[in-house]
Write a structure and sequence with these properties.
alpha/beta, TIM Barrel, 8-stranded parallel beta sheet, 8 helices, binds D-xylitol-5-phosphate, binds zinc ion
Length: 229
């Protein structure tokens, strides 16, 4: 994975057909996705259950780009080695989900993946400055995690800008996750983000039988993103 700050579109397969992940992943990549975002939910840290490391390992051969694993689970330390073995390029964790976020981030890198820190809409930015040497990505949650299809929380924008200023020249991605649509993508990029996660906005109206709809949805996000770059 090389680092750059150009806008990237990361479809969340939370909005894909759960009976058809391989074909869905190939379809969004063929249609221009830059990364593939894998939302792991355990029914404890968030009120929803999706899939685990065995599923992630099964997705991996279908992903040519970047497997971006977003862990929304209690006790993330118990799962990092499994997701790294499954081939995750990035593993992102929430500070509220375990007792020692610094140790958790270190163990992600030690396992060979890039380390991401996810910040819920109500999480303060105070401690982030002490973690800047230990992270490769900050995921600014623009919804409360657990479900796709929620509305973007506008307070995410000044949070992105504050983090962008805090990061300075460090090679750290700012990813934004939740309610990203063409209408807000320009403002999100202008605020300083570079990775746009989008579930509903990519998958809506399309299917593996009509993948060109995914292509149009991704192109609309990318055009809007570029307008903010
Ligand atoms: C929310 C997930 C998001 C979600 C985004 O808990 O982390 O990745 O899938 O979905 P949309 O784009 O539909 O808000
Ligand atoms: Zn996510």
């Amino acid at each position: 994975m090389t680092f750059d700050r150009s806008p990237k579109i990361a479809p969340s397969i939370l909005s894909a057909d759960f009976a058809n992940f391989g074909a869905e992943i190939r379809a969004v990549e063929d249609q221009g996705a830059d990364w593939v975002h894998v939302d792991v939910m355990d029914g404890h840290f968030v009120p929803n259950i999706t899939f685990g490391a065995v599923a992630a390992a099964a997705f991996r051969p279908h992903i040519r780009t970047v497997m971006d694993v977003h862990l929304m689970v209690a006790r993330p330390d118990d799962w990092i080695a499994d997701f790294a073995r499954a081939g995750a390029d990035v593993i992102t964790v929430h500070p509220e989900s375990g007792p020692h976020i610094h140790r958790t981030l270190q163990s992600i890198r030690k396992a060979g993946a890039k380390a991401g820190l996810a910040l819920n809409p109500g999480t303060g930015l105070d401690g982030v400055q002490w973690l800047l040497d230990d992270i490769d990505l900050i995921c600014v949650m623009s919804v409360n995690p657990g479900f796709g299809g929620q509305s973007f929380i506008p307070a995410a924008l000044p949070r992105i800008a504050a983090l962008r200023a805090m990061i300075g020249d460090r090679p750290i991605h700012i990813e934004v996750d939740g309610g990203v649509v063409p209408d807000n993508a320009g403002a999100i990029i202008a605020a300083g983000a570079d990775v746009l996660v989008a579930g509903s906005a990519v998958f809506k109206g399309g299917s593996t039988a009509a993948p060109e709809v995914y292509g149009r949805n991704i192109a609309a996000l990318r055009a809007a993103a570029r307008s903010g770059a």
